[in-house]
């Protein structure tokens, strides 16, 4: 091959008006494809935001959260699909044959689908977790032996932070049953023990009156004294309940225990305590009954 002739051909191609006209048209078409694609994606996202906002205003809080989550998921799917189409159109402008490329991608996707069935199961389960609003970021849930606060919900895995600091990463396909402690108000209940020596009815009246002054930021309704719950050999138990914000029943129960202890002490009402019985042996060393 004549190198000098080759260089002449390249120079002629570089200086040809047809080459630069075609190049300019390709650049213009690519720019238009990117701009129009971005405008379509932006318009679709704004439309979804508007639809979610309009429907959320007429729905309950839990349904609003689901609409927001699903809206974000749909926006991500539209963005991915839009960028994929833009990429294909740009490759077409560079002369890349799309039919073999798409066919190869389909075969590869099919092979990956058969080889990674657990991954597909995780993704499908993750989609339905988000779509059905089974739980959201910030909720306290329990699945299997894992309990904690949801940090991340992905299409493949969910990350849970336990109250002792451990982070549990659970594939969505393994989440079969979920207990959500954050969707509705919780009930704090305590049993107050009162000795048989005390007047139980009087104690109930005092506790009920003093609980009207009890305040806590987590309370939804004032505490309620239900009455005597059980009668044991040395005590009676009075049950008290209080409706509070989701997953705050332990905090409210501790505060109620401390408050009621002060109330009982202030009114001289004793709680039952273990009694020590002392036995005296007789002079002959027999049993306490003198046998």
Task: Give the overall form.
Answer: elongated
Largest sheet: 5 strands, antiparallel
> What distance separates the N and C termini?
129 Å
- Oligomeric state: single chain
Structural class: alpha+beta
In helices, the fraction of residues equals: 40-55%
The radius of gyration computed from the alpha-carbon positions, rounded to a whole number of angstroms, is 36 Å
**Element-by-element helix/strand order:** HHHHHEEEEEEHEEH
* Average predicted confidence as pLDDT: 79
Strand content: 15-25%
Strand order of the largest sheet: 4-3-2-1-5
Total number of strands:
8
Count of helix runs: 7
Q: Report the uncertain regions.
A: none
Give the SSE map.
Elements: H1 3-14, H2 17-56, H3 61-93, H4 98-115, H5 117-131, E1 140-143, E2 146-153, E3 157-161, E4 167-171, E5 179-180, E6 186-195, H6 200-211, E7 224-231, E8 235-244, H7 249-266
Descriptive report:
- The protein has 291 residues and is an alpha+beta fold.
- The protein is 51% helix and 18% strand.
- The protein is built from seven helices and eight strands.
- The strands form two sheets. The protein has a five-stranded antiparallel β-sheet with strand order 4-3-2-1-5.
- A hairpin with a 5-residue loop joins β3 and β4.
- The longest helix is centred in the first third of the chain and has 40 residues, at 17-56.
- The radius of gyration is 36 Å and the shape is elongated.
- The model has no long low-confidence stretch (mean pLDDT 79).
């Amino acid at each position: 091959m004549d190198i000098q002739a080759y260089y002449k051909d390249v120079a002629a191609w570089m200086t040809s008006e047809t080459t630069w006209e075609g190049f300019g048209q390709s650049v213009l078409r690519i720019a238009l494809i990117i701009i129009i694609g971005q405008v379509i994606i932006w318009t679709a996202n704004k439309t979804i935001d508007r639809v979610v906002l309009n429907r959320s205003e007429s729905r309950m809080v839990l349904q609003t959260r689901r609409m927001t989550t699903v809206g974000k998921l749909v926006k991500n799917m539209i963005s991915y699909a839009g960028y994929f189409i833009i990429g294909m159109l740009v490759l077409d402008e560079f002369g890349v044959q799309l039919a073999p490329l798409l066919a190869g991608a389909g075969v590869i996707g099919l092979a990956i689908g058969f080889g990674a069935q657990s991954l597909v199961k995780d993704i499908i389960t993750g989609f339905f977790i988000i779509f059905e609003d089974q739980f959201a970021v910030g909720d306290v849930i329990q699945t299997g032996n894992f309990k904690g606060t949801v940090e991340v919900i992905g299409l493949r895995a969910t990350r849970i932070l336990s109250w002792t600091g451990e982070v549990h990463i659970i594939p969505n396909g393994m989440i079969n049953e979920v207990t959500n402690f954050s969707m509705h108000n919780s009930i704090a209940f305590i049993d107050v023990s009162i000795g048989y020596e005390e007047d139980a009815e009087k104690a109930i009246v005092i506790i009920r009156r003093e609980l009207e002054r009890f305040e806590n930021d987590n309370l939804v309704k004032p505490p309620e004294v239900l009455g005597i719950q059980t009668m044991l050999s040395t005590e009676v138990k009075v049950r008290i309940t209080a409706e509070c914000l989701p997953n705050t029943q332990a905090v409210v129960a501790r505060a109620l225990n401390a408050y009621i202890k002060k109330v009982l002490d202030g009114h001289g009402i004793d709680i039952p305590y273990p009694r020590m019985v002392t036995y005296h042996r007789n002079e002959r060393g027999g049993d306490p009954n003198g046998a």
